[in-house]
Amino acid sequence: MQKEECFYLGKIVSKYSFKGEVLVKLDTDDPETYENMESVFVSLGNNLVPFFIDKCRLHKSNLLRIDFEEVKTESDADRIMGSKLYLPLAMLPKLTGNKFYFHEIIGFNVHDSIHGNIGTITGVNDTTSQALFEIEKEDKQILIPVRDEIITKLDRETKTIYVTTPEGLVDLYLE
Description:
Blueprint: E1 6-15, E2 22-26, E3 39-44, E4 47-59, E5 63-68, H1 74-80, E6 84-88, E7 109-112, E8 116-125, E9 132-137, E10 140-145, E11 151-155, E12 160-163, H2 169-174
Parallel strand pairs: 7-12
Antiparallel strand pairs: 1-2, 1-6, 2-5, 3-4, 3-6, 4-5, 7-8, 8-9, 9-10, 11-12
């Protein structure tokens, strides 16, 4: 399994017990969706390695306490500490309405209520405090915040996101 075929689930952030249990900080709005997993891919070096789960359950808000079959001691847990966890894209829950996954909207057109078609989404920058649509239009890049107040409609059939941008934002990039 390649990383491109998977989505990032979370990261192992600490040990929970001397029996090798670990706590995973999940990157999801619905942690309960992943409470009964049977396996997960752990990123070790440049490889995704399948790990099977004896037991996993929610721990506080968005932490998942996992007891892996292969990890039964503190030193075993130390080996995977800080590792990222992945699941196949096919396991992503389907979203409806204006909800979307960042990877899903790459290639969508963006239609602004004032400027019309302002380009195509080439990526989403989520390394900033506010995620941004990266939009290409005629060799110019336009950055628009990913916010519910800006996104008015998502049309999966036509692969178009309709937005109402703050006054002057798009003009900054097109002038």
